[in-house]
Write a structure and sequence with these properties.
This protein is of the alpha+beta class. The chain has helices at 4-11, 41-59, 64-75, 81-89, 98-120, 183-198, 200-203; strands at 129-132, 136-137, 143-151, 158-167, 170-178, 181-182. The chain has seven helices and six strands. The radius of gyration is 17 Å and the shape is globular.
């Protein structure tokens, strides 16, 4: 049985995570304990898990198009693909033209969401239990980490971590980690190798 955690594990093949965005958009105080009318990071994850479970149980063999629409509506808005693309290119990002930067962001977004769509389409029921724990402050006042544990029969528990930062558009995920393996680090390894070997003219065409 494949789970949401399993599909993340497919994507996460490195061990060093991204650093959160700095500067732009970060407030003087993180709103974890403030009466803001926004969902907290742990609420976002819990709601996402509930919506995913409801979709999978109700879909009953949904078409790839239906799964992709779910991913676009329910998952994509909480990820900061602009920052993920900047992190993925590393020092090479400064050498890219504006058009190449836009192409990198679009390409990374498509890769990420295509992988989610393929793996969500292969999930089976009954679904495992997902325990989501209260959000914890990150290393700065505008960050938060949410830990979750996926428990399925006859399988070792899988540890998940979602790393958030506070932006002008609310809480955004800048990295997702499964059993210590980071999605952002995987994409950085992939793109830095590809850009150095083939150049942006080939990789980002």
């Amino acid at each position: 049985m494949r789970t949401l955690a399993a599909l993340l594990a497919v994507l996460l093949t490195a061990t060093a995570g991204a650093q959160p965005p700095g500067g732009s958009g970060a407030p003087a105080r993180a709103p974890l304990d403030e009466p803001y009318h926004v969902a907290s990071p742990d609420q976002i994850i819990r709601q996402g898990v509930d919506r995913l479970a409801g979709f999978l149980i109700g879909a009953g063999g949904a078409s790839p198009q239906a799964v992709r629409e779910f991913v676009e509506i329910e998952i994509a808005p909480y990820f900061d693909f602009r920052y993920m693309a900047r992190w993925a290119a590393g020092p090479l990002f400064s050498r890219l033209t504006p058009e190449q930067r836009s192409a990198l962001q679009a390409q990374l977004r498509a890769m990420f969401l295509d992988a989610l769509t393929r793996n969500l389409g292969s999930l089976e029921t009954p679904l495992p239990r997902v325990d989501v724990f209260p959000a914890r402050p990150g290393t700065s006042i505008s960050q938060a980490h949410v830990y979750a544990r996926v428990v399925a029969p006859q399988r070792p528990p899988l540890r998940l971590e979602f790393r958030f930062y506070w932006s002008n558009d609310g809480w955004k995920v800048y990295d997702a980690v499964a059993n210590g393996a980071s999605a952002a680090a995987f994409y950085r390894s992939y793109y830095t190798r590809a850009l150095r070997r083939h150049g942006p003219e080939v990789v980002l065409r």
